[in-house]
Write a structure and sequence with these properties.
Layout (H helix, E strand, L loop, with lengths): L3 E2 L4 E2 L4 E2 L4 E2 L4 E2 L4 E2 L4 E2 L4 E2 L4 E2 L4 E2 L4 E2 L4 E2 L4 E2 L4 E2 L25 E3 L4 E2 L4 E2 L3 E3 L4 E2 L4 E2 L7 E4 L4 E5 L8 E2 L4 E3 L6 E5 L2 E5 L2
């Protein structure tokens, strides 16, 4: 099985595209980017040089994923999401000369397995979005997001816990949470959530 690349997409020869991946119209995948198997890069999306994506990731239309972002397996990035890479952006140096690529140090956004980033959210690097976390649409993430956290707002704050299905968890007693969809159980301890093995 090979990748499907739309004729209008711009994919660098030095990019690595996994089997079964699809890159749609007007998307750009830069040099040394690595996409795992079964990834989808939507219309007009941008994948920066050296960005690493695991298997079965989805970048929806016009998502902008700047280097050196890392997306683990199963990450969802909604329409028009932006992952930044410069903590202190400037077009020019203090003397007025145009900054070049070597004049600043890129920092990245890391998305752990199964994380989802809602439409038009902005993740301000450097931040890590935890495993199976969910960032609500329109949020601005400026600090790390714990595993299984549902965060929302500007700046984003945790408002609920979610399970692997993305559905908000229900209380099952002190320090215990249950997924209403799968029945999976979770334990909360010091603002962290972990799965309880069946």
């Amino acid at each position: 099985m090979s990748a499907r690349i739309a004729p209008s997409a711009d994919v660098a020869e030095a990019a690595s595209i996994g089997d079964g991946s699809s890159i749609w119209h007007l998307a750009q995948v830069r040099e040394d980017a690595v996409l795992g198997t079964g990834c989808i890069v939507g219309r007009g999306a941008y994948v920066g040089p050296g960005v690493r994506m695991g298997a079965n990731c989805k970048l929806q239309n016009y998502a902008l994923v700047y280097e050196p972002a890392v997306l683990e397996d199963g990450v969802f990035v909604g329409p028009a999401v932006v992952f930044t890479n410069d903590q202190y952006p400037r077009s020019v140096s203090p003397d007025g000369t145009l900054k070049r690529g070597d004049d600043w140090e890129a920092v990245g956004v890391t998305c752990r397995e199964g994380a989802s980033i809602g439409a038009r959210s902005v993740c301000v690097a450097p931040v890590t979005i935890g495993r199976w976390a969910l960032v609500a649409a329109g949020s601005v993430v400026i600090k790390d997001v714990p595993d299984f956290a549902l965060v929302a707002g500007v700046p984003a704050r945790r408002i609920r816990w979610v399970g692997r299905s993305g559905v908000p968890l229900e209380s099952a007693g002190v320090g215990r949470w249950r997924c209403p969809e799968t029945g999976a159980m979770y334990r909360e301890d010091n603002e962290r959530l972990t799965e309880i093995e069946p």
